Queue: 2 jobs
Job 1
Amino acid sequence: MLQDDASQRLAAVQTAILRAAKIAGRKPDAITLIAVSKTHDAATIQPLIAAGQRVFGENRVQEAQGKWPQLREATPGIELHLVGQLQSNKAEEAVALFDAIHGVDRSSLVTALAKAMDKADRRPACFLQVNIGDEPQKGGCPVADVPALLAEARAANLPVAGLMCVPPAGLEAAPYFALLAKLAGEQGLDGLSMGMSSDFETAVTLGATHVRVGTALFGDRA
Ligand SMILES: *Cc1c(COP(=O)(O)O)cnc(C)c1O
C-alpha cells in the first residue's frame, strides 16, 4: 500500500468517526479505532503505522505471532487486539501477545484465559462476544447467557471491558448494535466493540467504544 493511500484512508475513516460522534453528541476520544490487519503483511501494515495508527486487530494468534513482534520492535506503543475466535489451547499465546481479547464467549475459554493470565501475570482486557442475532453456527455467547458468562468472567478475575458483536450479515445492523448497548448497560459495562467497515459510523452513533475496521483501511482482502 502506498503511503499516500494509507494516510488518506486513515484520515477518511477518522473523519467519519468524528462526524458520527458529533451527530450523537459523543466525545471522539471515547472511540478507539482498531485497524484490522488480518491477512495483510508487514509491508502493507507499515504505511498505516507511519500514518499514525497505533491500535491494530488480528483474528488468528499464529498469524499475529508471525508479524507483530517485529512491527512492535520497530514502533513502540502499538496496541494489539485479538478480534476473532480463540481456541482454549491458544489462550497462553494469546495472553502473551495481545493487549485485548474480543472473542470471550464460553466458560471453557474463561477458565483457560484466567489460568493463562495468572501464569503470565498479565491481564489483557476482555470483551465478551455476544451472538447478538442468536444465529445458529455463529460464535458468541447466546444473548440470554450473557449475565451468567459475565459472572463467571468476573469471578475468574478477567478484566472485562465490555461486550462485542458481529451482527447478522445482510440485515440492518443498527437494531443489533442498540441491543448490545442495552445489554452492556444492564450489566454495568462501558465497553462496546461493534462496527466494521460497512457500519462503523452507525455503531459510533449507537455507542461503540471500539470499532474494528479492516477493508476501509487496507482495501479488499485476498
Ligand atoms: C475481519 C473482521 C473485521 C473487519 O472487517 P471489515 O469488514 O474488513 O472492516 C472486524 N471484526 C472482526 C471480528 C473481523 O473478523
Note: The radius of gyration is 17 Å.
Job 2
Amino acid sequence: MATRVGVVAAVAGAAVVALLSAALALYGQPLDTALKRAFSLHKVHSVKDMENTFQLVRNIIPPLTTKKHKGQDGRIGIIGGCQDDNPKAVHEVEKWLSRLHALVVGPGLGREDALLENVKGILEVSKARGIPLIIDADGLWLIAQQPTLIQGYRKAVLTPNHMEFGRLSEAVLKDPVDNSDRRAAVLRLSQALGNVTVVQKGEQDVISDGEHVLECSQQGSNRRCGGQGDLLSGSLGVLVHWALHAGPEKTNGFSPLLLAAFGACSLTRQCNHQAFQKHGRSTTTTDMIAEVGPAFNTLFET
Ligand SMILES: *[C@@H]1O[C@H](CO)[C@@H](O)[C@H](O)[C@H]1NC(C)=O
C-alpha cells in the first residue's frame, strides 16, 4: 500500500494502536440543557462547560468487552506515503478501503505532483464510500491547491497549524486571515468549506464545525515536538470513528466530529504535559506516545 511510509506515519500508527488498547467502557451521566450554552459562540468556557464537553467525549468511547474481536472498535488507515511511480496506486489502496473505518491523510506524504495526484484519487474514492477523512500536513497542501476536493464533505476534519491555516484561508476565502479573532477565522473557514470541521492547532486549539466553536485549552507544555501533530491526527482517526459509531443520542445532538476533535486535542495536550514533566526540554513525540495510556485514563476514565 505504501512504499514510503515515513517515521512520522509509523508514530501516528503507534498512537492509534496505543489509544485503541487503552479504551475502556464508560457511560456518561445525563446532560442538562446548560450544555447547549457551553458551545455558544461568544461565551467564555467555564470549568463546568469543559467538564460537560469531556463527559460527551466519554460517552462515545466504546466499551471493551470479551465479546469483541480484533478490529471491531475500528480499523484506521494512514496514507503517509504513496506509490508515486505506480499508476495503479489508487486501485491498490481502494482494495483496502472497504475494510477501513477512517483514513488519516498527510503525515510524511511529500508534495511531488505524481504523488499528490494519487492522493487526490484516494480522497475521491474514499468520499464516494463515505469514509471519514482526517487531513493534515502535506494533505493540507493539496487541499489548499484544490479546495473543491474536500468542500462540502462533512465527514472530513482538517488539522492545520498556523501556517497551514493561513494558506488554506487565502486559498478558500481569497483574502488574508484576520489573526485578531481566531475563533471567528476558524468558523469562517469551516463555513466556506461547507461546514467541514477545522481544528486550528495553537496555544489553544480552536475547533469549528461551521456552527459551533470550541476551544481546547487543556494544559500541555511549551515544548513542541516534531511529530506531535501525528499523535493528534492519529487519535482523531480513532475518535472520529467512535463518535460517528456512537450515534446522536450519545453526542446529545452535537456534531460527532466536533467532539472527536475536542477529545483528540485534549489527549495530545495531556500527553505533552505528562511527557514534559518527565523529560523537560528533551521531550520527543516518542515520549508523548508512551503517555497515551495514562493520559487517556486521566482524561476519560475518571
Ligand atoms: C453551515 O452551518 C451553518 C450554521 O449551522 C448554517 O447556517 C449553514 O447553512 C451551513 N452550511 C452548509 C453548507 O450546510
Note: The chain is about 50% helix and 10% strand.
